[in-house]
From TrEMBL:
The lineage of its organism: Bacteria, Pseudomonadati, Pseudomonadota, Betaproteobacteria, Burkholderiales. Signal peptide: none annotated. The keyword Isomerase does not apply. Belongs to the transferase hexapeptide repeat family. PROSITE patterns: HEXAPEP_TRANSFERASES. It comes from Massilia mucilaginosa. SUPFAM superfamilies: Trimeric LpxA-like enzymes (SSF51161). The keyword Transmembrane does not apply. This is Sugar O-acetyltransferase. InterPro entries: Hexapep, Hexapep_transf_CS, Hexapeptide_acetyltransf, Mac_dom, Trimer_LpxA-like_sf.
Length: 184
């Protein structure tokens, strides 16, 4: 039996994003974001209920300040006490895992969505995703961009405005574009 386009997407394989099942999930996520982003004046507990309704996992004490934008939501897994500041964007065509105690500054962008390097495959409309893993107690400064397939180790620091193109080891500080690990 062949895989559906959504199954291919979730497996990180090349898929066609125009598929009806995928569009239905995107539409549901858009409707959810309208509700969530309008809940700015609501209590933290009311916003938490909304988060739990759409995200894959929401640890105790996790907070996302609206406005927030994502592709689907169900591929986002937040640990305990995770904090995302205003205007964060997560393109979650595959898993995004954020460990407990991690703090993410405003306007951070986390992209699992990727595109084939071969121009013929791009013309054919194919896309794929590569998962992102962010460890525990990480601090990501405002405006940073985390690219597909990156892992960031526990206790790492990502400087504001950095573009993270490769893995960052635990305890390291990475800054710049492309982000480079600073010597100890």
């Amino acid at each position: 039996m062949s895989m559906s386009e959504k199954q291919k997407m979730l497996a990180g394989e090349a898929y066609r994003p125009g598929d009806g099942e995928i569009h239905a999930d995107q539409s549901a996520a858009k409707a959810w974001m309208v509700r969530y982003n309008a809940a700015l004046g609501e209590s933290a507990s009311a916003r938490r209920v909304l988060l739990a309704a759409q995200l894959g996992a929401v640890g105790e004490g996790a907070v996302i300040r609206p406005p927030f934008h994502c592709d689907y939501g169900y591929n986002i897994h937040l640990g305990k006490d995770v904090f995302l500041n205003f205007n964060c964007v997560i393109l979650d065509v595959v898993s995004v895992t954020i460990g407990e105690g991690t703090q993410i500054g405003p306007a951070v962008q986390i992209y699992t969505a990727d595109h084939p390097r071969d121009p013929a495959e791009r013309r054919a409309g194919l896309e794929f995703g590569r998962p992102i893993s962010i460890g525990r107690n990480v601090w990501i400064g405002g405006g940073a961009i985390i690219l597909p397939g990156v892992s960031i180790g526990d206790d790492a620091v990502i400087g504001a405005g950095s573009v993270v193109t490769r893995d960052v080891p635990a305890g390291a500080t990475a800054v710049g574009n492309p982000a480079r690990v600073l010597p100890v």
